[in-house]
Amino acid sequence: MNKRRISKSECAGAYSLSSLWRKPDPRQLIMETEDGGLPRVLSVFELIGYGVASTVGAGIFVTIGSAASDAGPAVMVSFLLAGFSSLLSALCYSEFASRIPISGSAYSFAYVAMGEFLGWFVGWNLTLEYAISASTVARGWAGYMLNFCSQALNFQPWWLQDIPVFGGHFFSFSWLAAAIVLICTLILLRGVKESAQFNMVMTVINLIVILFVIIYASTKIEVNNWSNFFPNGVAGTWKAVGVVFFSYIGFDSVSTLAGEVARPERDLPIGIVGTLGIATALYVGVSLAFTGMINYRDIPDLGNAPLAQAFYGPNHSWAGYVVSSGSLTIMTATTLVSLVGQPRIFLQMAKDGLFFSLFGRVSEKTGTPFWGTVITGIVSGIIAAFFRLDSLTEMISIGTLLAFIVVCAGVVILRFRAPPSDQEDLRSMPGGEVYASTWGTWEEWAVTVYLTLFMLASLWFSIAFTFFKHLQPWSMIPTGLIVVLTFIPLQLQEVKDPPKTFTCPLVPFVPCLAILMNISFIVSLPIDSIIRLVIWTLIGMAIYFGYGIWNSKLNWYNVQYNAEHRPVKVDGRVN
Q: Per residue, what are the HEC states of 520-532?
């Protein structure tokens, strides 16, 4: 639909409190996706292939070293806890994705359930996940390439190595990391179907390599390495959860492809949950074999390629060559699919008027969001070139966790909110466009208040659990009771809009438990991660209030509606 330019006088109501909470009608978003969106060409197998490639790789080959240093052999438990929390969130994602099969992932879910501002907040912070996750894996790829050149080829010139910048604490230059991002960006520009076929071949090779790692490492296990299974106690295991949680972000990237799936209502839940199940099984197997083969105290000495380095030995160096070359294939696929999600979130945000229109353009030849893919590749390449691996990993986890919290809360809100056709304030606009008004019913706001109280109680419980571990266990009972008491009003709500496709079980229990666990993970992250998030959010708010709120499609609908229903004086009377 062509929108005329809105004057500043007409946009006088844009900077109002109600503008922050205005919500679109999901039926209109789906209709717009079908009319002029991306081609629906992906099958369920290609969807799982994308998910497995996005998920499995960084967790096994990049973060397992630092996580095992914190948790020891109990890193397996950390993977299980992160996987369980991810499963709870994955069930919420599956319900949302099958309800609203469009490309925006958590951004679109928050936009529909909680309004424009929170949708923007989630979408903007997802750039902290997708763009930086590609940079993180690329940085890990560079480390494994150096390891492969050194061990297998006996060749490691200075110009391949990282160059410290500003002391090297946070920055170091790696042109190898930037190069792999550039190559993957060029592959994605050929089209989603073509890149999916390339990715499927890579994923099959990846699974063969990972199974080799598990089987071969199992023959080298020394049981004594597991004797001190929890060397740093519960605190170390829980700290590692926040690190390895990054390894599971691939399942939510599946939902960014919702607008390109041939049968989204059926295939999206299978793709999301299937990805998570495969990833968890592989993570647990590799972590057990790895910590049984190498004592956790020796892991920090293995450098940036801990898994491959562990396989180099006097009697089995050939295994190290296999793992090094296989890890390069795996992380190439992971870098590729990590670059898929961000352009599609930008695409949906641009279609909603909240982001620059350049990102809303789809190539007629390849059916890809061309400029979104190009710009995402450039930014990710620059980040990969200059940022150290540990700094990038912490930034990703907190952005992902926030998105999970909002999606889980959104499932609860939609269940207890009257469907759009039942709302008295639904407005029809010229051309058939519809949207829901800003404030909603009092029942919806009551649920929102209950959820907010539950989140605050969960935050206090998580802070007490993380920072007051020296207290007696019984001292946690009062804060735990507050969490339970704030949950009870949510449990007593009446379901008004049950989903007609995939259904998340035990709502609101499952979403609320996911919210509690995700908040706990955020609290356990270093304070630097939260500072970076605040700075990034402030930058995003400047863009939203400077551009998005003025150019929002819903703002344009408001102007049109008010113009057509403005009272007119005739003979001194208002008609």
A: HHHHHCCHHHHHH
pLDDT at 164: 65
Q: CB-based contacts of 562: which residues, under 8 Å, 6+ apart? A: 13
**What is the strand order of the sheet 427-428 is part of?**
23-24, 434-436, 427-428
Q: Are 527 and 533 in contact (CB under 8 A)?
A: no
DSSP one-letter code for 7: P
Please state, in angstroms and rounded to a whole number, the distance separating the CA atoms of residues 527 and 99: 36
Look at residues 378, 333, 288 and name the one whose alpha carbon lies nearest to residue 76. 288
Distance CA 451, CA 457 (A): 10
CA distances from 501 to 127, 324, 331, 498 (A): 29, 43, 34, 9
For CA atoms 162, 338, 75, 241, give the dihedral sign: positive
Which residues sit opposite 163 in a β-bridge?
173
Q: Give the model confidence (pLDDT) of 18-43 as tens digits.
A: 777 788 877 777 776 665 567 788 88
Instruction: Tell me the two tokens of residue 263.
Output: 């049968």
Dist CA 561 CA 430 (whole Å): 9
* Distance (Å) of CA 172 to CA 112, 137, 306, 552: 41, 15, 19, 39
d(CA 533, CA 387): 16
Please give the structure tokens belonging to residue 479: 């804060």
What is d(CA 377, CA 384) in angstroms, rounded to the nearest whole number? 10
- Asked if omega into 478 is within 30° of 0 (cis), the reply is no
Give pTM, 2 decimals: 0.81
**Sequence-ordered list of residues with C-beta below 8 angstroms from that of 261, at least 6 positions apart, any chain:** 40, 42, 44, 47, 101, 267, 268, 271
| Both tokens assigned to 317 | 């160096």
pLDDT class of 420 with cuts at 50, 70, 90: low
What separation in angstroms does the CA of 88 have from each of 268, 382, 494, 514?
16, 34, 22, 5
pLDDT in tens, 282-313: 999 988 988 888 888 887 766 666 776 777 66
Calpha distance 83→103 (Å, rounded): 24
